[in-house]
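Hi R.,

As promised, here are both runs. First protein below:
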Amino acid sequence: MKQSEKRLLYFLLSLALLGAAVVCSDIYFDRRDELSGEKGNLETEWIEIEALFEEKEMWELRANWLDKNQPSFTNNETITQSIFDRVQSPSISGVTTSRLTLLPVDSSPYYIQAGVSLTAEGELGRIFRWLYDLTPPTAFRVARNIKLTPSPEDPEIINAKFELLRWYAPPAR
């Protein structure tokens, strides 16, 4: 082999080694960035786990309160009747209800949700007082998708369309 061929061979080998070093360093830096991101995610997850463990007693108290106070689901007819009775007889005078429609029952392993869609009519203050009376925390009721519009006949009267939901404990297995 001539001296020029040896130099060319060394040059090509050097170039191949340099190319391999560039490719390997690119792979290394990509993997390092990926692992750094994963480390950050794991650190965040660990902080969340520690916070949950610090709040363990509070969550156990809440779970015990739910076990004691959340109403049990009996059957659809009884639940439906109780919802209709509660909504049809407003405790605040000057509030009338109409267009009651039963919503489908939604089940999960932790609760059963039953509800009704309705329209209530009355003065704004009375409507909100009635909604407040309907949804104390101990009743496990919530008003969802509230839409308020003024009455076309009397601007002092408000039409409130909303869904009233109640959460029940699932039946014991």
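And here is the second one, sequence first, then its structure tokens:
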Amino acid sequence: MRLAAKVSSLLIVVSFVTSLFATESSQRRPRAASKREYFTEDELDLIRDAQELNERVPVYIKLAERRLIFLGLMEKSEKEKEKEQKEREKRQKAKKKADDTRATANKVDADDASYLADFSSAELLRGYMEALDEITSNIDYAYSRKLDVRNSVEDLEKFARETLPFLEKFMPKTDSERIAMEEAIDKAKETEDQAKDALKTVPKTEKKRKEQ
């Protein structure tokens, strides 16, 4: 992955990583993992639905957090619980109005993470890493188009910084889990450092941030 040249401190070149976007006008489906896709089809639908950078980054963060919660490494904040309660009530109202459930069929239930049981602990950690990679790729693309990426870089830095201690609490039971844990920790540290450096270069936005 890499960020644009002017954000040189956030630049990492990995030759096999391809862009997430097919054309200048539309975004590609997020890249698949080399051996296994670490996001489900329903999750990919959520990602595809979030077309703008300020919409897509929170989705990736949410999916990465969901994996750490499922692993028992972190808990939902009160704010997150309140938000999910509102989303649940909204879905229930939508179902009552709809003739069928097709409108909500492709949405990941904010309260049900049981589908993550299909992934091993190592795969859940790699899903976390993939989220960081994809956020950076999306920022790269937006920056290359001269779009405002400041808020997204700030969110990336904060997320990597705040989740690092949770990763360090993980107790691996197998070699594959140990390797995944070490790589996830390295990825979080690397991402945090690079994002901090990038914030020294990326101009601050004067627009007021919307509550997410």
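A quick note on the second one: The first helix runs from residue 41 to 49. Let me know what you think.

Best,
J.
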